[in-house]
Amino acid sequence: MSSTTRNRPWDVHRPWDVHRPPSAAGRSVLVTGGNAGIGYFVAEQLAGAGAVVVLGSRDAGRAGAAMASIRSRVPGAVVRHLPLDLADLPSLRAAVDGLALDHLDAVVHNAGVALDDPPRRETGAGHELMFATNHLGHVALTRWLAPLLAAAPAGRIVTVGSFAARSERLDLDDLQSAVDYRPKRAYGRSKLAQMTFGLELDRRLRAAGSTVLSLLAHPGGALDSLTPPRPPVHTRTVGEGLRGLPAGLLLQGKDHGAWPIVRAVLDPQAQGGQLWGPRVFGLRGAPRLEPAQPHLTDRTVAAHLWDATCRLAAVDPHLGLL
Questions:
Q1: pLDDT at position 103 over 70
Q2: pTM, full prediction
Q3: Which of 54, 63, 92, 310 gives 35 a disulfide partner, CB atoms 3.0 to 4.6 angstroms apart?
């Protein structure tokens, strides 16, 4: 994408075009887990729009490969790596210092762990691994990013949700699945916790008169077999591509799954508390606004989750933003 294209003016009245988003020149965005999967394509598309993109990742080698891939596809891309381990909560404050920015226009809470089989795994601090990485780590990261987000003209916190959260309900007495651990359910609940917290965060930001927005987005049904190759970040054989074609009637690749997230970051008309997802049954297609399901907007659950989360993540309940 040429610099001329990236810096074009944006007409807020024209329909959103996933291939021609508004210019993000001069804006800085941190994408957690930006070295692979959905996060990689979010980073690639934001870099294509002209943003300074920071890939938050534990693995320097994988982050380096992702940066090289983005630069090969986006001439002039400004992209760098921030060492970040969301499962290690005490490390996050120092990690944020490594950003060396005077403000941050957006953070995309994308990184996640999904375990398929027992046994239940814990972090060094004793938190269940998926709940800690997917939820607690992002909340703690938000706390330490707060001064940078507040210093931006209109900072955004975009939480990447999942279809897995639709059928789950939080057990406020067993948030970390210590009593009844089922990996897929624990994953779904960790994503539900993220989404519930993100909506509650925006309610509190609005009440505080903050300029920072908290939004949700989800990729729908995004499969590796439908995702274009980005070697060595993502490879796909011809056979895998052919086998994935039937699924393309309802699902999509991770490049398209990134579209709702990019819109939540860049759309000048987007508002706090919104949920963006794919247009076709919430599974594929261009991004659109979705109504949040009632269990995501239960304020009693959200208040209990907020208190428990801040205690477990060892952060001030005001998160430095309220």
A1: yes
A2: 0.95
A3: 63
